[in-house]
Write a structure and sequence with these properties.
alpha+beta; 510 residues; 11 helices
Amino acid sequence: MRRWWGSWTAAAELRQGWRRRFGAVQCVGEGPGLPVPASPDGKAVSSLRSATAVQNQAVSGSVIHRPTLALCGLTLGLLVLMAGLSAHADSGPAASAPGPLPIDLPTALRLAGAQNVDVQIAQAKVYEARARHLEAQLGFFPWIGASAGFRRHEGNLQRVDGNVFETNKNTYVAGAALNAQLELGESIFASLAAHRLAAAANEALDAERRDRVLEAATGYFELARARAAVGIGQETVRIARDFAAQVGHACDEGIAFKGDTYRAEAQAERDAMALRQAQERQRTASAKLSRVLRLDPAVELLPRDTDLAPLSIDDVGAPVQALVAAALEARPELRAAGFRRDAAEKAKDGAVYGPVFPSIGAQAYYGGLGGGTGDPGPKEAEENREYSVNLGWRIGPGGLFDAGRIGTARARADMGEFELERARDEVRRQVVEARERALSLRDQVLIARKALEASRETFRLTDERREFGVGAVMEHIQSHQDLDRARLDYANTVAELNKAQYALRWAMGK
């Protein structure tokens, strides 16, 4: 809108210039003090619409006091029209460019637990496991079937006593049946195993959600570290360029060496390059976090917290045995592995003891049966009822004493137990490593803070020496580099500490 207003203002100034030079030009519907066209909401309308109105009045034969100025009015309208089109073309891509989006840590954690694709995949696996459990349960229930049929025979037919005779007959059948076919032992143990697998899928969903939350926290701290590095780089570049300008001025006055000017300028350019690299890392960290949160990577994310402060978690100082015991109780990965092991045990029991239970088949049929000899057509149709129940056992492959099936089921049960024990060992390792890293980084933060304070004091003293004309250029550059390095070290250590403390909470199942 500002570009359209600028186009209209330029056209108005051009018209004022024509009036001052050639006199007033008044068209039909135009007063001495005609305001800028406005929309109903009070905003200035498009300069393209205004220019079109001016052009239409000129072309439609408006009454003009001075005919020689008609061509001027038409030319003015065309100029305004071209200016508006140019402004519209220039403002298209720039107006659609998205701006940075501030985000804080709680928001990032909530989005990671709800919108992440891996979490949604785990949720779909939960639905699948529940459906399989329901499918196993429905195996205990009968089903209903309906049928209808027609059969015709023509020619010879053999009696029960063996004599053959010639006849033509028809048979009509229609009815419905209630059927049940149940492998009782297999159905029982399959339902128990499916129940454990559904519980394992629930725990796997919880574990996946926690993994993505940890990834989001790590990505946020990476973004905060990159943002801090950009801030440090901007201040460093400002100081370096100010110092280079001061050295250059001193060299022009003849009180400084020309080589010191080049040295200061080279340092300023190196700092500018480091700043550009920091900006690149910030943009990359934003894109990675956007992927975790399922946001548009084209929108740059900026941490709402500008100061990168160290977090404090009380669990860091607790004994490692207590942390490991708490993790073994709380980690959903271990519960999921335990449920999978139980499912494998139920499958093994089904292979060993399932065939002991009989296979049950039952049917209750009700319908009509009709037919007769001669031409086709329903004859002598009467209702028909049939009931049957069958019990059976299977011996051999797929039944009792199936050594191959039993051996496979036992091997899978053993693998489930081994996987659970491996998961426990992995949890113990993660807790010990996360605790030790958090403790180490907590001490490193204290060391980095002391180094930062010393570097600040060194830079202050060096700057004072420079003001009194005592300090050398190289000394000032070196102290500036030490301060920059100390600030970056502190920011990196704080970011790593925060990541390590979140990793410890994750390892403990919190």
